[in-house]
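Board notes (copied after class):
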Amino acid sequence: MFARILTATAALLLVAATATPVTVTVQLAPQLGDHQSGRLLVFAKRVEPGATPETEIDTSPFSPKSVAIAGREVEDLRGGGTAIVDGETGTFPTAFSALPPGTYRIQAVLDRNHDYNYSGRGIGDLISPVVEVTLPGPIPAIMLAKEITPTPTTSGDQPDVKLVDFVSPALSAFWGRPIHMRGWVALPPGYDAGGNFPTVYSTGGFGSTFSTAQRSAAQMTRMMKDGSAPPMIWVYLDESSATGTHEFADSVNNGPWGQALTEELIPALEKQYRMDARSTGRFLTGHSSGGWATLWLQVRYPKVFGGTWPTSPDPSDFHDFTNVDLYAPNANMYRSAAGKPYPLIRDKGQELASLQDFARIEAVLGSYGGQFASFEWVFSPRGADGRPMPLFDRVTGKVDSVVVAYWRDNYDIAFIVERDWVRLKPDLDGKIHLTVGTADTFYLDGPAHRFQAVLDRLGAKSQFRFVPGKTHFDLLERDGDRQALMKDLAWEMYAIARPGSKRP
């Protein structure tokens, strides 16, 4: 039996050793012009012969190994010109020559804005038709033939949703160019009749955009009009950036976003709108990375806000940073001390992707905008090359203890609260209200439990809700109402701002 195993293994090694290296030739259609640059990506998906035609081949974090990816940077690609993408190195999950034999659908995308890692293909990107090939075998040249253009909207006039576009002096000084803080204000019914209103500042999670903030604002105006949410002013802030999401943190890499919000934008909005300008009238909420942002803002600026209601926030205790204890001796982002891979994504009890899978996909898609690169732009010290120092080696997973120490001192919320509790207590106690599902898709219930334990040990007043069976994506839903929890949170805020008020 062992002889048969050795023979089979030798045969596989021989095939791997003799496999013909794969390259993909990508051409630029002449009508798309010259001087095209960006991240050139090639996606390959195995299908059954005769499968339903597709117009888009793309990767998914929820099925990471179902689509192979190769990528490279291109500069000044000219109309009618070609670029060669190496299918052997810098690929995921394997070299193209090692893909199982079969029918594949292949598509090329030129990510001109280097934001594929954050929001996928989008406006301005160049795409090819989907080409079907048999592997192993030759891959014909693929033509970038179409530019993705904006889709016309039919949303109509929204008189109760107002644009926020504020040029921050602090951020502009940091970057040396005008930096805009953008978002949308949702006004309550009866706003024109007079009086001041409590205000909620809400931030979106990783992948949220200026457009998603607008949709959230419009949704809130509808909920306030039908009486299911109380009459407050909501400010939906866009925290997306070229580096991922800045999370309104004061960062040596992204700039002083927290300072700009609390010292510049909020005072400007309170002059423009009839907002309750007391701390008991200013509240925070956000989901995922936005949840972490509102936790950090409450802790960093406890006098400014009257409470935060984050949902499924990113890790608030770095003893459990997406399942990894960053403070463990010889910490590794890919495997435990026992050699077991760390999972990152789960659904219905099934592990869908490992942390290593996720990091490798990010590396192929490009160096900007990915979730872990985004964390580094927010949390890390600046390196000698002017870029954020990596938390971990992308090949081995080894964690840099120097970077971890900087993360701890500046952005580990549980650590900061415990370290500074004597100073923070008068302005922070009782202001943290956190909700997360026990089946959170990204295991974010773990760090929430740790943070709660720290607050309990301090004797702090806080509110933590762990909703049984809820994931990252259905946390707000109850009894068919997809915004049920958000309505609950809104009424809790309103009760603080307007004591004695009752929910209908």
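Comment from the instructor: The longest helix spans residues 2-18. Residues 1-18 have pLDDT under 50 and may be disordered.
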